[in-house]
Design goal:
The chain has helices at about 5-10, 15-45, 50-55, 60-85, 90-115, 115-120, 130-145, 145-160, 165-185, 195-220, 235-270, 275-310, 315-340, 340-345, 355-365, 370-385, 390-410, 415-420, 420-445. The chain has about 450 residues and is mainly alpha-helical. Helix 4 (about 60-85) runs parallel beside helix 12 (about 275-310).
Length: about 450
């Protein structure tokens, strides 16, 4: 058994290890954020209703992503912890059952794409053009989601064994594919059919399949810690249970985000469809800031999980502190960009004067909470890595459902859409408080009892 990567996570200097594990994923997630933004930029060139339709699709896309990412988080944490414990049978079972669960997720979303998309849009708007655009886009994304589910799983397997550079390659390949195909298929360049919003969806799923195939090849070729045994595979209920002990809270946590977005869209569309478009643009833009921090987190989880399994407390604590510092400065830079260049950011999306008037204060108000969010995100990765992902779920429910939505609704009663954005700051303050309480509890009951 090749234990080189295992030893790397157990003995390499923490700062060097964190950078080597996280930087490739931070870069690849920046590329992901770039193609998500470019996707919307191209769609906005069709018209504002097309941009609104893609923005309204976010709740279902968020559920789709949450199932893939949440299950991947569970596989990642279980596999990395098993490597630290030298339990290679569980390592292999984690990988195979993760792939099995990915296929089940795909089957579910075929049905969502065929039967749920139209009523989903009709429940949000009665504008026939927005509904038409939305059905074109979201049906394709759901019915061809096999690529994104397998991409998530194969990339998490590479991350779990320390091969984060490989995940940068796979994600970048998918993103570049999407970027190239977007204008070609949306506007019918180089003799291709002009497909509009459907072209954006086809470009997206094609990029996902490219990334998934490449990630599969890299796992089979270079991921020697994992042995894939496809012949005679039988699902292991015990392994699936262990995956979802960590993964289910993450799935619920991210799915709650889709409920929040759906609810906030309902609040904003009462003002105008432009308000919904502004919110959608904000979500695309903030991914440039949050994605690198999530990439950092993807490096933190296997390091902390490995050293938790190996009972190396000092390495865990130092990694967590370094990650918190890096995340804070990334978010601080993001706040500065949103504060000083909001108009330029919005003009990338062909923003009208009305959209600018609404969007500029929105970006400035919401971005104030970014540095606080950095702390909450990093601590959330500690919850996941140590098997206490349920704390992340509690914080997410409190932030997005218990605080943010009610605050946004109450602020909307003032009749001024600008007041609605302050709900994000109120929710983040509550998130900071509950996250700190949970961290103190974990430190007292778990981390402090690990010998130095």
């Amino acid at each position: 058994m090749d234990n080189v990567k295992e030893n790397k996570m157990g003995v390499m200097p923490e700062n060097k290890l964190l950078i080597s594990m996280s930087l490739p994923m931070m870069i690849s997630m920046l590329v992901q954020a770039l193609y998500n933004v470019v996707d919307s930029i191209f769609v906005s060139r069709i018209d504002e209703n097309a941009l609104t339709a893609v923005s309204l699709a976010f709740p279902i896309q968020s559920v789709l992503i949450s199932l893939g990412v949440g299950m991947g988080v569970g596989v990642n944490a279980l596999l990395s912890r098993s490597l630290g414990e030298k339990d290679y049978d569980t390592v292999n079972k984690s990988a195979m059952n993760g792939l099995f669960l990915s296929f089940l997720n795909f089957i579910v979303f075929i049905f969502v794409g065929l039967f749920a998309v139209k009523p989903f849009y009709m429940g949000q708007t009665d504008d026939a053009q927005i509904i038409g655009y939305g059905m074109e886009y979201l049906t394709i994304v759901c019915c061809f989601s096999l690529g994104v589910f397998f991409q998530f799983t194969f990339e998490r397997l590479l991350q779990s064994t320390g091969r984060t550079l490989a995940t940068m390659v796979t994600q970048s390949a998918g993103a570049v594919t999407n970027l190239i195909l977007d204008p070609i298929l949306i506007f019918g360049l180089f003799g291709a059919p002009k497909l509009g919003v459907a072209g954006a969806a086809i470009a997206t799923v094609t990029g996902q399949f490219v990334a998934a195939i490449l990630a599969c090849i890299l796992n089979l070729k270079i991921n020697k810690e994992i042995h894939f045994q496809f012949r005679g595979f039988r699902p292991s209920l015990d392994t699936i249970k262990k995956i979802y002990v960590v993964g289910l809270p993450s799935i619920i946590m991210q799915s709650i985000g889709s409920i929040m977005v759906y609810g906030l869209n309902q609040i904003l569309i009462a003002f105008s469809s432009t308000a919904t478009a502004v919110f959608g643009v904000y979500f695309k833009l903030q991914s440039f800031i949050f994605m690198p921090v999530f990439g950092l987190n993807n490096g933190v989880v296997p390091i902390v999980a490995f050293n938790f399994g190996a009972r190396k407390r000092a390495r865990m604590i130092k990694t967590i502190k370094l990650a918190a510092i890096y995340a804070f400065f990334i978010m601080l830079a993001g706040t500065a960009v949103f504060q000083f260049f909001p108009e330029g950011l919005l003009r990338m999306f062909n923003a009208s004067d009305n959209m600018l008037g609404m969007g500029v204060p929105a970006l400035r108000i919401i971005s104030v909470h970014f540095p606080v969010a950095a702390y909450c995100i990093v601590v959330g990765s500690v919850f996941q890595a140590t098997g206490y992902a349920v704390y992340s779920m509690i914080v997410s429910i409190m932030r997005q459902i218990v605080v943010l939505l009610p605050a946004a609704f109450l602020l909307s009663l003032t009749g001024n859409v600008n007041n609605v954005w302050w709900a994000f700051l109120i929710a983040e303050a509550a998130s900071f408080t509950v996250t700190t309480i949970c961290l103190i509890r974990i430190n007292r009951n778990v981390l402090s009892k690990i010998p130095e």
